[in-house]
Each structure stands twice: as C-alpha cells, then as structure tokens.
Amino acid sequence: METEEKSTEGGRSLSKSVFYGILLGLAFLGSVLFVKELFILLVAAAVGFGVWELSSALRLKNWYVPRVPAVIGSMLIMPATYYGGVKWQWATTLATSAALMIWRLVHILWEKRRSISQSFWAAIRDFAAAAFVVIYLPLTLSFSILLLKHNVAWVFCFVIPVALVDTFGYLVGRKLGKHKLAPGVSPKKTWEGLLASIIAGVLSTVLLVVFVAGKDWWIGVILAALLIISAVFGDLAESLIKRDLGVKDMSHLLPGHGGIMDRLDSILPAALVTYAFVTVLGI
After folding, report:
1. How many whole angstroms separate alpha carbon 60 and alpha carbon 72?
2. Which of 163, 244, 259, 270 is paired with 152 by a 20 to 30 Å CA distance?
3. What whole-number distance in Å separates Cα of residue 181 and Cα of residue 234?
4. Where is 182: in which H helix or E strand?
C-alpha cells in the first residue's frame, strides 16, 4: 500500500500539493493583511525565482537570458512600481530589458567564437528572449502591486478566485475528469475540471467583490468571467511553453506543485486583466 497518495498527473503528491498550497495561502494573507511591504517582498521573491526558472528552461533550446541580472532587474520592478507608480513601472521594465540586451551583446562579442552573421542572429534571438521574460513575468505581475497601491481589496478579489479556479479545476479534473479540454496542449485538463473552475471562480469573485470590495454583484460577475478566461489562458499558455521547451515542470522548488512558474501561470494574466478592469470602470 502506498504511503502517499499520488495524482495521475505525473505522480504528484496530492497531500504535498494541499500542504504547500495552504502555506502559500497563509503567506499571501499575512503579507496583505498586516504589512503591505511584505506583499511587495513576497511578489518580488516569486518573480525572482520565476525568472530564474524560465531563463534556465529557455537555455534548453539555446535561448540565452542572463539569469543574475534578469533576476535582480525583475525584482527591482516591484518596489519601483509601488513607490513610483506607473511611470517607474515602465521605466524599470524598459531599463531592465535594455540592460539584459546590452549584457548579452557584450557577452557575445567577448566570446569571439562566431562569425559576424552568427553573432548578429544570436543577439537578435536572445534579445527577443530577454524581452519575453521581462514582459511575461515581472511586468504582468507588477500590476498586482498597482492594485495593492490603489485598493488592497482588489488584490483579494483576483488572487483568491484564481487560486480556487486552479484548485477546483485540478481536484475535480483529477477525480471526475473524462473529457479532455485541450489534449494537444495540456493532456490532463478536462471539461469537468473547467466546469468546476467556472463555478468556484464565479461564486468566490462575486462574494469577494460584494463583501470585501463593497461593489455591486454584477461587477463581480463580469470580473469572474474575465478572471476565468485569463486563468485558463495563462495555464494553457504556460503548458504550451513547457511543451515547446520539452520540460514537465519549470523546477521542483515546491513539492507537489512543481516550480514557482507553475503557480504563477494563471496569476500573471489575471493581475493585468484585473488592473485594466478596475481602471476602465474607475472603481
């Protein structure tokens, strides 16, 4: 008899998934409820680990992003966004991208192992990889910092529903899932899991918008629809990235979950979508 319950998804431990999921949830609640700066630190740390994982995975297909400067620059975007607002958010994002490109160009020229033509195309390829990493991860997640600065209630209104969308989609899909959602991209995703995600997402978002943000229920319904779409898209997008890179998980940092990127995939687009929603409605 096995001593630890395994999921059908690559042999992951359900008990470990739940345990570390609770720890992450408590860290999030503690940082948001008590000291906002702790949330900034938590997001910056998640970004740093995520950038390292993604940069390392890209190297498997010869896309080279300087990891140390990428991590440092990406983490700096978070406090810059909180204290400097949108202007510093974009300034540090552009500065980080430019610094990575210059770093890589100097590195290529210093190596002197390639012809001019080879060096040119290698530089273009790696510049694109650097821009992708900075835009995909720290820039999108920095919108959660803008929401924190605007009204902490909106951070609850997108993080908790997205977490529940992921959790219920995984649990129901694992136990009851029979019909594949997108077998060519993520073979384990099912329509049954998606239905569970929709129910959990709508109920949690409406309740949070009404009782935490103090807004009308219909605002919660619209936000729920946007969050569910963005969460599913983010999950499938990362699955496609991992498939193209030939990896199952970005790392094994979180037992039962995979890497940090495997937890952030749905949060990234949800942060951007929620900020745009709140900004457009002026709420």
Report:
1. 22
2. 259
3. 15
4. strand 180-182
CA separation for the pair 228, 206 (Å, rounded): 13
Q: Are 197 and 228 in contact (CB under 8 A)?
A: yes
Mean residue pLDDT of the chain comes to 85
Q: Which of 180, 277, 194, 175 has the alpha carbon at shortest distance from 235? A: 194
Percent of the chain predicted with pLDDT > 70: 83
CA gap 220, 156 in Å, rounded: 12
Query: What is residue 10's predicted lDDT score, i.e. its pLDDT?
Result: 45
Given the structure tokens 């720290």, which residue do they identify? 138
**What is the b/e burial string over 17-49, where b = at least 16 CB atoms within 10 angstroms of the residue's CB?**
beebbeebeeebeebbeeebeebbebbbebbbb
> H-helix or E-strand containing 216?
none
Residue 196 and residue 174 in contact, taking contact as beta carbons nearer than 8 Å = no
With a threshold of 0.90, does the pTM exceed it? no
Domain ranges of the chain: 33-150, 152-283
Of 15-19, 136-140, 247-251, where does the model show the most confidence? 136-140
The whole-angstrom separation of Cα 244 and Cα 126 is: 17
Q: Which two tokens stand for residue 104?
A: 């890589």
Q: What residues contact residue 245 under an 8 Å CB cut-off, 6+ apart?
A: 57, 58, 60, 61
- Which is more confident, 36 or 94? 94
Query: Would you tell me the crossing angle of helices 152-176 and 267-281 to the nearest 10 degrees?
Result: 140
Q: Residue 165 pLDDT more than 80?
A: yes
